[in-house]
Amino acid sequence: MTQQTAPKKVTNGWAMYDWANSVYNLVITTTFFPIYFLAVTNNKTDHTVVFLGREFVNSSLYDYVLAAAYLLIAISYPVLTSIADTRGNKKNFMRFFCYMGAFGCSTLFFFKSDTLGLGIIAFMLAAMGYVGSLVFYNAYLPEIAAPADQDRISARGYSFGYIGSVMMQIVGFVLVITMGDQGLATRITFLIVGIWWFSFAQITFARLPASTVKPKRGGNVFQDGFIEMKKVYGQIKKMAVLKRFLRGFFFYSMGVQTVMLAATIFGSKLLKLPDTNLIITVVIIQLVAILGAWGMSRLSSRFGNLKVLMGVIIFWIVICVLAYYTAEVALSGANAAYHFYGLAVLVGLVMGGIQALSRSTYSKLMPPTQDTASFFSYYDFTEKIAIVIGIFTFGYIEEITGNMQNSVLSLIVFFAIGFAWLYAALHKSNQTIKA
Prior knowledge:
This protein has helices spanning 8-28, 32-40, 58-87, 90-107, 116-139, 141-144, 147-178, 182-207, 221-237, 240-270, 275-303, 305-331, 337-365, 372-401, 404-428; strands at 48-51, 54-57. With 435 residues, the protein is mainly α.
């Protein structure tokens, strides 16, 4: 692991990839696309849509497609990182998935009610490109930042991402309110997101150093990938704190990521909030999240990463309880808009911080190694499988019970289990992980 932090030009170049790709995470998965997807798949009667010969609740189909995309990329991680680690071309793979994601976003321009299949394929490509590039992006953190600087630089990346994505969000919002055809304005926004992602990523690719791993030739990369994953698992199993942290991370990620991915659908479908209100709310979340990521980094330097993460998880459980209550208010016929706006501010406070702190905590708990991509592949595999289970459970519970409110309860269970494992990690800790 690098003992000296790279020059500011390099670390800022690394953080610029958050600026580039976070527009996908905000515009595509958080605001414009969920609203647009519900609109073009709404049959005005029972919110169902037919796909591949089966009838789905439209919001559940959205959850299932997203879960499928994350599952496909997660199971390919071992092979991808084996190629990157043994061939010394980590940056090339990051570039490949970046371009795949940008292409998927741009192709959503052609998604209409009569091109559902095309829209779903483009959405999956965008999601796979996003999560596929992140494993290589995250793997650069321990290479360019000393352990003492990793919390700060990780938080900087998330802050860059929030600022950039809010700017793109404003562009899309202006298009929607100024153009007569809101559907066209939304599809133009998808196209601009793809161009934005592709263009700003060039700064990152120009500034990141070449891989420090000496290329190796020969061998079966498919077999080697799973052997490498098994080796990483074997190392982690022997590290009491890291092992328990990852188990906690697995469960609380089910809750965190599902809230982030399903929040807009929750506000649009269950609370029936106007689209413009939802878009403005998400912008507020991003602005609050900048302060949250910075504040959590400062707290971790004072109290330690695990203690801060445990406190944040309790905060997330409170958010879920309040979300359940908000749904109760909405179902009673009362106006729950202000409840939702309050929830949005609370989510913003802990959304970016828990992701940045989780990433830097794992980076500091890792054993010294040059195979950073393999270790972050394991980290990202854990997170993406958690997302698959979380978002699928959320959609499935809504589909079988007919009420999204019931799905919220499952998230409380995930957070509680995650807290228990983090407590176990803290109890077993024999090392200080303060910045």
